[in-house]
Amino acid sequence: MNSFFNLQFGNFSQSTPNWFDWFSLISSLLVSGLSIFFAFKLAEKVYQKEKSDKNFEDSEIQNSEVALFKNSLIELNSSIEKQITDLETYNANRDFKLVFHPDIQVDFLQFIDIKYLYKKIGFSNIEAIKKINNLMTLLYTLYDFRESLRDEFRTYMKKYNYHEAKFYQYRQLLYTKYYSICHHRAEVELSEEGDRKKWKFNGDDEFIIRYSELIDKISNDNSIMDSSGLKDRAKLNSEFVVPLIKIAYEYVPEDLDAIQVNEIGNEVNSALLDMELVTEKHFTVIHSYLHNLKNTSTKIKEFLLVI
User: Fold this and answer.
1) Is the bond into 253 cis (omega within 30 degrees of 0)?
2) Which of 12, 101, 136, 275 has CB 3.0 to 4.6 Å from 5, enough for a Cys bridge?
3) 3-class DSSP state of 104
């Protein structure tokens, strides 16, 4: 104790402190205490201010993140709905005219911090959080949507055109191959009216006679073809190509022309079946695109109601 008072007032043990000494001591202690108190309060105030500023800044960032996300979703959903409409039209018409909407993109996701979405709706709102998670999963599947849809369409057209080129061999059966066979198996004579030429076949040449009758039947059926060209591929195949395959097969292997006609006919028939197969597969994929887009659009609308 003596050493303490010696530090403050000199040798306290050698003199009796008066009231002024006690006053000075107490004042010094009060000043020190008040300094510490006000320093603490000032530090607390600065901390609270910084905390308030940080909270305000976080709130601003959160609001801007949510606003950006909402606006991006609204624009995205508009493009999705347009693509849905055009895909449905394409599916209904199947006319090889597919409209693409390049605005279906989700690049904005890389600028979104999902924690701000969770904070906006509240971490205790389990149902809303589930909706966000489901929506985000669907959105991420759209990253390569544009390229995927274009690739699917290009692949389909490539396959379809390949088989279609083989189907066009039906023209050989109707024209070039038929005329070639007639050229060495029949004679040309004028009609009774003398205004057109026609083939005159040997009475025992059953194959070319039946072949010719089938061509005459198809040529007079305007539901299959007319002056403008082929109108119904499926009907041409079922009423001309397939029956001709069967007729030609009856004269295999003794008739070389029948063998060749049968081979061409089978290629034409197979080509049409392949065209139908790749078309069905393609539109199965289109249906899956439609399903995913419709589901995504629904989830976007649900999310916009809760955010």
Assistant:
1) yes
2) 12
3) coil
